[in-house]
Specification:
Elements (H helix, E strand, L loop, with lengths): L4 H8 L7 H20 L5 H8 L7 H24 L1 H21 L3 H29 L2 H32 L4 H4 L1 H15 L14 H22 L7 H21 L15 H31 L4 H6 L2 H21 L3 H10 L4
């Protein structure tokens, strides 16, 4: 690849080469915030339950956030294509930060769950738009290196979350696991507002797929709610779970049918014809499944089974905290240097069963 290819790509989008570092700082802060809040709350769950004396909605403090994030990601991606990345990034950051304030001020479990859902909607924008911006300003050969930086940030946040949450819960209050987002979120918003000015703005007239958006929200929400209820102890064959899963299958089926015929589809179906993309999505699913499960369940197990404090339970994640960033950075660098990503994926898959 010619040495000037990166500069050419950046200038096409009015982002000058010296500004790329500032853009990356803004994106990494956004990913750090979104990923941090997926796990920082885990070790605070017993303290939250003890204060509100409500166990029935406790799981939704985490599940509500992740369901909202999952549903919001594809919607933000499409809106970013139509209206530009910068306004969507700023909106997601602002919503996330404001919802963090409401989480810390919650006076009941219902208020906390609602604030967490709003917070998840904001986080979905930060995570998805950050990835889209990298695709806009960095040529394919260089993306492995930058994705390595991003993956390292995500890994550090995912594992640092329980550690920070444990110490703040133990020595301050569980409310601080949300209030810590206020200075971080405000700082990230200001950096993004200043550095993302050069991103391109689409000139075409936006055509929004309203029906596809509604179908996707209903279908994914029903699917994730059904799976969450099973995880909370309900049987697969219970009426509530079957109703949710049936609704998900029918709604998502109608969504696929509609997207094939929509003038401006929310999620173009031709993307799923790309075999490499589908395999990569499956890989991300399984790795994220394991990483998030470990970072959430390990601290909870040590607190509930051994009676350890929140700070002590979180320290059991330190080996994972060291391994994830190292692996992500090394894989990204090797992919950028060699131009080959398959050996890195296969190597990780071979090590996966030993985790």
């Amino acid at each position: 690849m010619p040495a000037g290819s990166t500069v050419t790509q950046l200038n096409t989008l009015n982002v000058q080469p010296p500004a790329i570092r500032s853009v990356l700082v803004a994106l990494m802060l956004a990913i750090f915030l979104g990923a941090l809040d997926q796990t920082i709350v885990a070790v605070s769950m017993p303290a939250i339950s003890a204060q509100f004396k409500d166990v029935s909605l406790l799981a939704w403090v985490i599940s509500g956030y992740m369901v909202a994030t999952t549903v919001a990601v594809p919607i933000y991606g499409k809106l970013g294509d139509l209206y530009g990345r910068r306004p969507l990034m700023l909106f997601g950051m602002g919503l996330f930060t404001l919802a963090s304030l409401f989480c810390g001020l919650a006076q009941s479990m219902e208020q906390l769950v609602l604030a967490r859902i709003i917070q998840g909607i904001g986080a979905g924008g930060m995570i998805s738009v950050s990835q889209a911006i990298i695709g806009d300003i960095v040529p394919p050969r260089e993306r492995g290196r930058y994705q390595g930086y991003f993956s390292s940030m995500y890994a550090v946040a995912s594992v640092a979350g329980p550690v920070l949450g444990g110490y703040m819960t133990e020595y301050l209050s569980w409310r601080w696991v949300f209030w810590i987002n206020l200075p971080l979120g405000l700082g990230a918003w200001l950096v993004a507002r200043r550095t993302l000015v050069g991103l391109s703005v689409p000139q075409r007239t936006p055509i929004i797929d309203y029906l596809g958006t509604v179908l996707l929200i209903i279908g994914l929400s029903a699917l994730l709610l059904g799976i969450t209820q099973v995880g909370q102890g309900q049987a697969w064959h219970s009426r509530g779970v079957l109703g949710l899963l049936g609704c998900a299958v029918v709604t998502l089926g109608v969504f696929v049918w509609h997207e094939r015929r929509a003038r401006e589809p929310l999620l173009p179906m031709h993307l799923f014809v790309n075999r490499s993309a589908v395999l990569c999505w499956c890989t991300v699913f399984f790795t994220s499944f394991q990483a998030i499960s470990l970072t959430v369940l390990v601290p909870l197990r040590f607190q509930s089974v051994t009676g350890a404090g929140a700070d002590s339970a979180a320290l059991h994640l330190l080996p994972l905290a060291m391994g994830l960033p190292i692996g992500a950075y090394f894989a990204g660098r090797r992919t950028s240097i060699t131009g080959r990503y398959k050996p890195m994926i296969l190597s990780g898959a071979l090590l996966f069963p030993f985790a």
